[in-house]
Amino acid sequence: MAPTRTAEDRVLDALDQCIVRWGLGKVTIDDVANESHVSRASIYRMFPGGKDVMFEALRVRNTREFFEGMRAALLDSDSLLDLTVQIAVYATTELRNDDNLVTLLATEEATAIRELTVDGLPRIINVASAYLLPIVTAYVSHDFGVRFVDLVARLVISHFLAPSSLVDLGDPASAREFFAPLVAFIDLPVS
Amino acid sequence: MAPTRTAEDRVLDALDQCIVRWGLGKVTIDDVANESHVSRASIYRMFPGGKDVMFEALRVRNTREFFEGMRAALLDSDSLLDLTVQIAVYATTELRNDDNLVTLLATEEATAIRELTVDGLPRIINVASAYLLPIVTAYVSHDFGVRFVDLVARLVISHFLAPSSLVDLGDPASAREFFAPLVAFIDLPVS
DNA sequence: AGACACTAAGACGGCGTCTGTCTCAGTGTC
DNA sequence: GACACTGAGACAGACGCCGTCTTAGTGTCT
């Protein structure tokens, strides 16, 4: 109830609530307006383009918050492998514990999968780069870091959607075993 | 998955699922058809009149199951007061523990309240009479029993929707204290 | 085999709801 | 008083849902 919460934040919070209650496909602008106590007109002023833009804004906010939480949770690492394992384990665990996401996968599977692959993955990778590149570049070059973050993001999401019998990225030991060969050839401890 | 489950049961189960997922007001016949794997045409054949009739069928089934559960849970009683307390406590507890109902009251309050008052109460009282009259008439006449079941049903629902500071019908002692004066003048142990 | 009952699939018109844009009146701030 | 912003609501158009209907396909009887 802090008055510092912007109107946009209140609308996006309301949208989130509506999605939880009624599912992605059933939310209307009127629902969000009622829930947020912001008029429909103001919502359209806030998100020119309407529903799609508002939904995209929520996804961007959620993605940001996801990686903010990750950055706050990362401990000091002594190698790229160590850092990668921390990232993969945190991300996998968070995804598995995200009740909204799990519900979405159960009730609106097609939409949820698109959001984690074709539709949403580019944005996820962009945000991941913004948050993780400064950390990753402690071990590798910028250009390599970009490709490495891209790779890890894809692998984590893929293993979340379709768990492998060979590896559990939610388990540190298993994740380490999995990533070791991938980073071995450039894993240089920071002297 | 028992093959004995009728198509109607499967449709009503699907409807129940859809309501849980999407809320009363957002369920479409197509949702139910997909969820139940019964075609839309068959649903209309099954419930002539469409959506309203199907919803009413589910409410009837739910009400029946509620009172079947109650009848199975009732222990032998030695007086009308004792029986009344058992009924009130069971009903109140069940209502409070009904997750679907609680969710409905949180997200679609207006509809949920109508369902427990103006719209649904006549049906509830009818079913309550059908299940409880045979038991109640151990202590009182048929005509009095009808009016008594009606009275108890109204009181339980009223106290569920608007809890009183004077009495908690979920608590046996409190319920006994509350009902004692109401049944005192006709409470005749079955000699 | 043929008659019968039943179902899934989907086309159809009608209607209600949602969308996105707009106007207008009210409020608070310089 | 000028300005920026908001809520309320009208509006046309699009869309989705409803309820009915037809058609083709399946399984069960005699």
Structural class of chain A: mainly alpha
Please describe the biggest sheet of chain A, giving its number of strands, its sense, and whether it closes into a barrel: none
How many structural units, i.e. domains of chain A?
2
Task: Note the beta-strand portion of chain A.
Answer: under 5%
Helix content of chain A: over 70%
- What is the overall silhouette of chain A? elongated
Task: Please mark out the parts of chain A with pLDDT under 50 across 5 or more consecutive residues, or reply none.
Answer: none
Extended strand count of chain A:
0
Mean pLDDT of chain A: 91
Question: How would you classify the quaternary structure?
Answer: homodimer
Radius of gyration of chain A: 19 Å
Largest interface, C-beta closer than 8 angstroms, per-chain residues: A-B, 5 and 5 residues
What can you see in these coordinates?
The structure is a homodimer. With about 190 residues, the first copy, chain A, is mainly alpha-helical. Chain A folds into two domains: about 1-60, Homeodomain-like (Arc Repressor Mutant, subunit A); about 75-190, no CATH class. Helix content of chain A is about 70%, strand content about 0%. The first copy, chain A, contains ten helices and no strands. Chain A has helices at about 5-20, 30-35, 40-45, 50-75, 80-95, 100-105, 110-115, 120-135, 140-160, 170-185. In chain A, helix 1 crosses helix 4 (about 50-75) and helix 5 crosses helix 10 (about 170-185). The longest helix of chain A is centred in the first third of the chain and has 23 residues, at about 50-75. Chain A is elongated, with a radius of gyration of 19 Å. The first copy, chain A, starts with 6 loop residues before the first helix and ends in an 8-residue tail after the last helix. The model of chain A has no long low-confidence stretch (mean pLDDT about 90). Chains A and B meet through loops of A and loops of B. Chain A binds a DNA duplex (30 and 30 nucleotides) through helix 3.
